[in-house]
Amino acid sequence: MSMFTGDSLDPILARLGRRLRLRDGWRLAQRTLWPALAVAVLVQIVARFWPVENAIWWTLAPLLLWLPAVAMWTLARPLSPSQIARRVDVELHLKERLSTAWTLTHVDSSTAHAHHFDPDLLTRQQDDALAAAHSVDPARDFPLTWLTGPLRIAGVLVVAVLALALLPNPMDQILAERAAIARAAQEAAERVEELAEEVEASTELTPEDREELARQLAELAEELRANRGDQEEALADFAALEEQLRNRLDADFAAQQAALEALAAQLEALAAANAQAEPTDAAEALEALAEALDSLDEAALEALARELSQLAGEAAAAGNAELAQALASLAQAAQAGDASAAQSAAQSAAEAMESAQSDADAQAVLARTLDSLQSGRQVMAQAGGNQSAAAASAPSNQPGQNPGDTPGNGSGNNPGNNQGNSAGSGGGTNASTLPPNTGSGRADAPRGDAPNSTEEQMADQVYVPWERRGDTDGEFIVPGQQTGQGETQVRETEQPLPGSAAAPLVPYQDVFGTYIDAANQALEREAIPAGMEEYVRGYFSQLEP
Across-strand partners of 506? Predict the structure, then answer.
């Protein structure tokens, strides 16, 4: 009679199988640790030649993948009872006791009968196998040993990984710059979105232009938010929109705005002088002038017509043909004393002024937007401490500014002046350029072949256009305050022929105050973009006498 039941071998084999899987997993972990560490070392080496974001996580990734893979293989690896029995027999030299017993107890009765096994022999074989199985101690007979060879390699690789991770990495600075650029791009995107909201709330632009500009700003904000540290890409995005705005911006809009404001101020002054009114804008001034025609005498009408004709010429010079035509018609109506025609011309002039002012306001919105984008581009260029990019993104030329010009260094020809070697006949000047800046705090003398005495004399005098004189005879009046420091020169000449040099000269210090005051007033009225204010102030500071 057997002392063991026939099916008691299965739980023993299951317990031994768990131990075998654990030992197999332990050995596999030791054999495969060094390849995972080798990949980690490779990541660290690559991170020293190329900027790799989150290099520490990429270094740990092979190990984080290796450990679960080993655990899953250990737990999920199939190991049948017959395989367990054969492995235990082989490793413990049991002479196939367990594998034979398991095989004989799990065959069909018909198969056993076919082999004519003696039942008593089968019972004794199973008892012997069970006795051998119960004598096996899994922890003692299947120990978790250390594999010195793979572990030595792994140890060397661990030291290499730690050394590479702790030593300074030259790519860290690049990564820090990229992170700073990415943060700057996010902040710039927020500012651009705020700028887009301001554009949508503005009333100066037409609905179509407002919608288009807001759409372009929204696209720029989206591109900046998607930027992950590419400074060149961010600067290119800014530059692309700036170029589109610059193409839509009139190069002379600042001058046109200043001319409109000057015309409006002069119209208000005319209305105050001739109509005894105090208008608040140009439209009221024009209406007051038209209504005052019936109360003016012939001399006053002629003077008013002359003033209006001069304003029409200034409007034409500013490029506003419609306003110039309306002011010319108003001047003709004033000359004829026709109140009805004056009312119609005044209305046309008011509409032209309103249209021109609307266009100037729209241009001002574009200029402010362009200035804001240029400021954002400068901030982006300075992000991350990239000096080369900051230099490359220096403010581009503003509308109306010639490349290469610097404040205080005039390069354009002065209208009415002809180039020559000496002062020409008729009291004119032959200086063809404005005095160049030398950094001495005052304007230099014009350069030429004339003697030094002539240069010094001309350096203290400047050209005043004919239309700025008070009358049409040989005398002229320069607006400003008389300081008593200059000299007044009166030259009696005939009216010069077309193209001849006959431009009058006045003491330089007599007119500088007037022009600097006009420039300061223009700056206060925001007729000049914010980005150009320092250039204008610097220009006039260099021209101080």
Answer: 462
